[in-house]
Write a structure and sequence with these properties.
2 domains
Length: 348
């Protein structure tokens, strides 16, 4: 991920080196990097966590939000997730093909994309499971099995890193109405709220391609990955100043929350107690809809006073902490709206 994901994002294009330029780099995966760039760099990063627009939200086989209509096939979502983690690169290749084919105008264009994927799959499989094992001579089978195991571990690790950046508690999911007439400041805000980090030291940062900093990566997708820790030190105080949540935590906890959400949302809604507005894996704006005309909301922050906004309001929802009085909750919701307005102004 430190190479393939980050190079294809164009993070090193500024060096003008054709060997690591996003337009010429072909990664060591079964899917063509060009198809991944369209599905990931465009559809995922522009429409992050928007249901029906971000194809990476559940990858079409997993339900990760109550706003996604439940279908009987989701009963198999836990098994689908397990299978996807084992063959992740193959699943992503098919996923990327479907995403780009959907936006093609002619059948010939769709067919050409499919031929490109099949060619890449054939070459990759021949290299990994025929050519390199053949170099081992009598140890062909050992090398073949070793490559299979290595690919399985790589797929599983990539799956864990990626789902922990978007499906965990606190990574918000959005409906298509969210992006209608969306301004640039609102786009930045959605990137912040729709992503999550996990705690990592120097070694884990390298192993994850610095995708332990998903929040910062989504704010600045083409920023070289080695600069993400540096920019994180500036993002965190900004979010704290405006009382906006900075979602992070230990990797085991983040992954457990993801697994719990996948298993829970595989069931029909009638078996779920929470709604899309108060579930642990989301924090819908509906919880702030009862704010009245808000004459008490200030658009200008008083220097030196403590802002109170979305992070405080989310922490105050029932079940997270002791229940506060209704008047107290309304006050926090009002403060949250004020913080969002102030943040949009700050990014303008």
């Amino acid at each position: 991920m430190e190479l393939g994901h980050n190079i294809t994002h164009g993070q090193w294009d500024w060096m003008n080196d054709p060997e690591i330029h996003s337009n010429t780099w072909e990664w060591d995966m079964v899917g063509p990097s060009s198809q991944w760039r369209y599905s990931h760099n465009y559809r995922h990063h522009v429409f992050s966590n928007v249901i029906g627009m971000d194809d990476d939200l559940g990858f079409g086989v997993i339900r990760v939000s109550r706003d996604q209509e439940w279908k009987p096939g989701y009963l198999w979502a836990p098994l689908r997730a397990l299978g996807l983690s084992i063959v992740f690169e193959w699943g992503i290749a098919l996923h990327n093909l479907a995403a780009e084919q959907r936006d093609q105008a002619t059948d010939e264009a769709k067919a050409e994309l499919k031929r490109a994927m099949v060619r890449k799959m054939g070459l990759q499989a021949a290299k990994d499971y025929l050519f390199f094992p053949a170099l081992s001579g009598r140890r062909f089978l050992r090398t073949f099995l070793a490559n299979m195991c290595a690919a399985g571990f790589r797929n599983g690790w990539a799956y864990i890193v990626i789902v922990c950046g978007h499906f965990v508690d606190g990574a918000e999911k959005f409906t298509p109405e969210t992006v209608e007439n969306e301004t640039k400041p609102e786009w930045y805000l959605r990137q912040m709220l729709g992503t999550a980090n996990f705690d990592a030291g120097p070694v884990m940062r390298i192993l994850s391609g610095n995708l332990c900093y998903q929040i910062e990566h989504h704010l600045f997708p083409d920023l070289p990955s080695n600069r993400l820790p540096e920019i994180s030190a500036r993002v965190q105080p900004l979010l704290a100043e405006y009382d906006l949540p900075y979602t992070t935590g230990p990797l085991p906890r983040q992954f457990w929350h993801t697994v719990r959400t996948i298993c829970k949302l595989s069931l029909p809604d009638r078996f779920l107690t929470a709604t899309s507005h108060d579930a642990p894996e989301t924090a819908s704006e509906e919880r702030f809809r009862d704010v009245p005309t808000l004459p008490q909301v200030r658009n200008v922050h008083d220097l030196g006073s403590r802002r109170r906004g979305l992070a405080t309001a989310i922490g105050d929802r029932p079940g997270r902490r002791d229940r506060w009085h209704a008047g107290r909750r309304a006050s926090l919701r009002s403060a949250a709206v004020a913080a969002l307005v102030s943040l949009a102004t700050a990014f303008s």
